[in-house]
Amino acid sequence: MGRVSGKVALVTGAASGIGRGAAVALAAEGARVVVTDVDEAGLKETVEIITKAGGTASAHRHDVTSEARWKEVVAAVKDEFGGLNILVNNAGIGIGASIFEMSYEDWSRQQAINVDGVFFGVKHGIPLIAASGGGSVINISSIAGLQGAPGLAGYCATKGAVRLFTKAVALECAQAQMNVRVNSVHPGIIDTAIWQKIPQGGGVGALSSSVLQLPEGANTIDPNAIASVGAPLGYAGLPADIAAGIVFLASDESRYMTGSELVIDGGMTAR
User: What is the C-alpha radius of gyration for the chain, rounded to an integer number of angstroms?
Assistant: First the structure.
């Protein structure tokens, strides 16, 4: 009997990285999982991993910045599985640039995915969770939502928004006695493909010393190299490390937690 057996979970940004790790872990613990992303090829791979392991999963292409699409996806989950118990708002992007050089287009795009996407998920997902008997919402923030970093001000703004939005929604759900818990997860340096997707503007070197802490002369972003100097444990985490925290928050083991922050960062914020 898995820790989330009989539950239905929706995970956004599940084509790779933390989203895929969360979907696989939730399925392994008995949840029926709906995975969404704009990367359809990656979604297919995620579903294959889950089904080959004996789990149940379905996929939907999903631009989290579209409220209309959110309505469609939530309706599809209800039609397919009859309800929803777990929502993991994971979809996000990272754009590294000096705030004085960042374009409004990049600022707005990052806000739309990282903040608006979570807002739409909460707005349209929680009513179905409540109608399904209750459950858990896990919003993926970052240690960048807890502390600032030069060159990442735009990203910090989005992740800080997710942190406080989570707390306010948790209180609203508790006040309304919806039986829905809402918590945030704050990963540190995790070895995922997002590091290769960060637009750098002036190049990796422009941000290496103050932001990404890359070794001198590095021309690619290696999360383990960053973690070796940035994380007290000395190495990058894996998607499975974050997924373990997500499963905990999704399960009844965390029944008395809401509005909380689960920090999984190798000690980075302990300083």
Answer: 18
Are residues 89 and 168 both part of a single domain?
yes
**CATH code for the domain of 146:** 3.40.50.720
- How far does CA 121 lie from the centroid of its chain? 12
Report yes or no: 103 and 24 within 8 Å, Cβ to Cβ.
Answer: no
Q: Are 68 and 158 in a shared domain?
A: yes
Catalytic machinery residues? 155
pLDDT in tens, 29-87: 999 999 999 999 999 999 999 999 999 999 999 999 999 999 999 999 999 999 999 99
Higher pLDDT, 39 or 202: 39
β-strand 86-89 against 56-61: which pairing, if any?
unpaired
Q: Are strands 180-187 and 135-140 parallel, antiparallel or unpaired?
A: parallel
Q: Which of 63, 85, 39 has its CA nearest to residue 192?
A: 39
Number of domains making up the chain: 2
Q: Which amino acid is residue 212, in one-letter code?
A: L
Residue numbers of the domain that contains 90: 8-188+240-260
Examine the domain organization and report whether 205 and 177 are in the same domain. Answer: no
Lowest-confidence range among 68-82, 136-150, 182-196, 237-251?
182-196
Looking at the structure, do residues 161 and 213 belong to the same domain, yes or no?
no
Please state the pTM of the whole predicted model. Answer: 0.92
Per residue in 216-244, pLDDT (tens digit) is 433 456 888 889 889 999 999 999 999 99
23 and 155 in a single domain? The answer is yes
